[in-house]
Amino acid sequence: MEITVCRAADVAVLDRCLGSPGATSFHARRFERQEGGSSTYLVAWHGRRPVGHTEVRWDGCDDAKVRAAWPGCPEINALTVWPEALRSRGIGSALVRAAEERARARGCTAVGLGVADDNPRAAALYARLGYRAVASYIGRWSFEDHEGVTHECVEKLTFLVKELP
Questions:
Q1: Which of 56, 87, 136, 144 has the most CB within a 10 Å radius?
Q2: Structure pTM?
């Protein structure tokens, strides 16, 4: 497995292999943020097939209260390993470590991430990697489906932080 920074040519491959929840490419939006300098979009590859991704959002968590409590703390966002059969094989851990390395290289002293309260498997992974809960918040995001209908999503999350040596 190899982890790389997303390139323009990778977006179509990601859409084909990992999909997007709506009509606008999830991966293209993340790549655009990376091109604008507000994030780094990392992709895990097994040969020529993407098997996971995550985005390091340099401006931190979307939630204003979390961002105010942890200023300068980048957020690891949208960590995904796909297909599900590949989970629990170290791909997610490798993506988190690669994100932490990028944060450390930028001089960050901590990195955070949000985990849905109904995702104990991911919470257990993050705890094993040294993350600790610091705040609860409500995450909100939306997407437009292929019929042009906008779907608003709301979920209860816990923000976890890991101090970087």
A1: 56
A2: 0.93
